[in-house]
Specification:
Layout (H helix, E strand, L loop, with lengths): L4 H14 L3 H7 L8 H5 L6 H9 L11 E4 L5 E6 L13 H20 L2 E7 L15 E7 L30 H8 L7 E5 L2 H20 L1 H8 L2 E3 H7 L4 E3 L2 H8 L5 H4 L5 H14 L5 E6 L4 H20 L3 E4 L11 H11 L5 E9 L17 E2 L2
Parallel strand pairs: 1-11, 6-7
Antiparallel strand pairs: 1-2, 2-4, 3-4, 5-8, 8-10, 9-10
């Protein structure tokens, strides 16, 4: 979440600013010490499986839950599981988005292994797919095979620079239609990738995604789910490097002023609540184009494949310098979102299928820090 300097000053008030000390100035400019280290450490382990996993953990995933567990006790293999403590039961009641995140993880692992001269043979849901994301059965069994002839993927070069760019986009800078065509070439044949930078479509999707955000905010259980995942300030981000990180000078200032707390965020009358919803909806209104991915059905295998495609599209956008921010609220399957969910499907899948992902795109002048990540050792079992 990003707040402008003007909005932050309005929230904290002149008295707080006048009371600022040298310590406060030092404190609010400190960055997390450990939460972003996995981005620089990717590729360091000696074991080729762990090297690939050190890259895979950088994959995009819903609410930054990092919902993966990797069992490496069998030599030359990785068995991937969904982390059952990192689900989103209210905003993602059927585990569809979690499964897409696991598909992103598997694809980035595959790309990293290939870069290292290994082919990976992936068997998805070897014991059967789960009906919901509350199943302890494996998501995939992956066998690593040394193969110098394996094809390297040029998109992998952008893995470390990839971001989910949640900041405002430059509304004076258009995205060329050719950019959509470039991204469209990356999907699998059975998935329908689409996008638009037409003015009428931009206006439609800005309105719809803003309304979807409001519904998620105004539905108490779905909003609470997000607030419980707030990591407020650098200390919390380092201690629990998943969820929704609220760091940086502005957020630290609000935290020190006592205005940014979970309790305040849950109070619809508070400045924190109003400032938060203003920030996310203002950002949503700066989309300069939209892209989406539709699959014929909605099986777990299709969800994993959608994750693989989505990762590749995100990497290609990174290569082109285009900001990429998933706006999946209208695709969530909780009852209060049903009207918008149906509207999206009528527009993008009138002949059937499932809209798996929707993202705004545009150009962002800000330098975006990488999202916090749990270290490799936190989710890998070796013995």
């Amino acid at each position: 979440m990003s707040l402008s300097r003007r909005k932050t000053l309005a929230l904290i008030g002149g008295g707080t600013v006048a009371a600022a000390t040298a310590y406060v100035g030092w404190e609010v400019t400190r960055e997390p010490a450990t939460a972003r280290l996995p981005w620089s450490q990717a590729g360091a382990p000696q074991d080729p499986r762990l090297r690939a996993l050190s890259w895979a953990l950088l994959a995009p995933n819903p609410h930054n839950r990092q919902p993966w567990l990797a069992d490496c006790r069998t030599p030359g293999e990785v068995t991937l599981y969904a982390h059952l403590d990192r689900l989103l039961p209210h905003t993602d009641p059927f585990g569809r988005q979690i499964t897409i995140g696991l598909g992103c993880f598997l694809e980035l692992m595959r790309m990293a292994a290939a870069q290292d001269g290994h082919r990976v043979d992936i068997a998805t849901f070897p014991n059967g797919s789960y009906p919901r994301a509350r199943d302890a059965n494996p998501v995939a069994r992956v066998v690593f095979v040394r193969d110098q002839a394996v094809e390297r993927d040029p998109l992998f070069a952008h893995a470390r620079a990839r971001r989910s760019t949640k900041e405002p986009y430059d509304t004076a800078r258009n995205v060329a239609p050719e950019a959509i065509a470039t991204l469209a070439r990356l999907g699998r044949p059975n998935a329908r990738f689409g996008g638009s930078v037409a003015a009428a479509d931009i206006e439609f999707w800005r309105r719809l995604t803003t309304e979807a955000l409001a519904i998620e905010f105004e539905t108490p259980r779905t909003y609470r789910e997000s607030v419980e995942l707030f990591r407020i300030g650098r200390r919390e981000i380092d201690a629990t490097p998943d969820g929704i990180d609220l760091g940086g000078p502005m957020m630290e200032t609000l935290r020190l002023a006592g205005l940014l707390t979970r309790e305040a965020a849950l109070d619809p009358t508070s400045a924190a609540y109003k400032g938060g919803i203003d920030a996310v909806t203002e950002n949503a209104r700066t989309g300069m184009g939209y892209v989406w991915l539709v699959t014929p059905g909605n099986s777990r295998q299709e969800q994993l494949a959608a994750g693989a495609d989505w990762l590749r599209v995100n990497l290609a956008a990174t290569a082109s310098g285009i900001g990429f921010h998933p706006m999946s609220q209208a695709l969530q399957e909780f009852p209060e979102m049903e009207r918008l969910h149906a509207q999206v499907h009528r527009r993008l899948a009138p002949e059937g299928g499932t809209v798996q992902m929707l993202s705004r795109i545009g150009y962002c002048a800000d330098v975006i820090a990488p999202s916090p990540r749990w270290p490799l050792a936190s989710f890998v079992r070796l013995a």
